[in-house]
Amino acid sequence: MRWNPYIDLRCEVSPTSRAKCKACDVEIERGGFRIKAINVLGQEQLMHLDCAATKAPDIAARKLKDKAPDWPAQALKDLERFTDKDVEPAPRSFQRTPILDLSYDKRDMNSECVFCGLEAPGGKPGVGYNHAVRAFSVDGERRMHAVCVIQLAPGLCARVVAEASERWPEEVRELFKQALPPGVVPTPRSPWRDTGGIPSLEVAPSGRAACRYTKEKLAKGELRISRQQVFGMRRSPVYFSVEAYVRSDDFHPRMLELMVLKSPPEVTREQIEALVAKLPPPYPEDDDVTPLGERILTLFDAKPRAEPEPQVNENLTENSVDIPTGFFFNA
After folding, report:
1. Buried b (16+ CB within 10 A) or exposed e, 132-166
2. 191-302 in CATH: which number?
3. pTM of this prediction?
4. Top-level CATH class of 6-90?
């Protein structure tokens, strides 16, 4: 199983010839197709179409299988020439990134709402359309109407109401308050968003650390997730329960695959099997690919293992020289 860190490939026509391909370091010609490859950390890399198909063949196979509507027909035709027919498509859920945070967009600009396609702000009269909201996800930010965000992220809208921040216009907060269905609980601020870099799986050496989600202690010997916090002058790790992470809004299957692939030698297969048992139910749209649990176990089994240290032959005698005191100098 060949693993890659990318969660999506986006196609566009290159407006200039200044950009270089991240894979081959050759300029991307103006007017040709170029690919924005988004990795699991949300970083964007520009590539030639054929280089992207080589770097992320499973995502390319998914685009072809679903006849991606956001790709030009000619680009899909070219992509087919560079994609191996035997590659299993990536799960559709790998391209799905939930909305993780909201902010009010004060910028004096107009663009399309990614939900309804109308101009934002604008498109229709009323408070819900006269304001634009920035919605953040793993793969970047999106611009939406206030009424559209309520449908996609009601818990985050409830948090805006509960916090009553002056950064949001009062009429938008009032709109959220009136339009939200009863019983919507405000989404808590995620501690995962205050961390950075590649997280890692590790075995807890003690029971002193607590999960940043649940605030409960992580037992000694328990499998936990470690990541660096990004605030402050001193970088120090923070820890998360695996069970809490996989059931949070921050969970992304590709990120978990990366953690398993880079797990240290002390992590056992039995612990990975226990991790798989804690995964949420499979996504309905992923019924045409290998389940995530099987993919994770396959990756763990395919991991390169450290070479064992050579054994010392106990039958060999040790060469030692006993130098008398004062032989080279006067003691």
Report:
1. bbbbbbbbebbbbbbbbbbebbbebbbbbbeeeee
2. 3.30.1740.10
3. 0.83
4. alpha beta
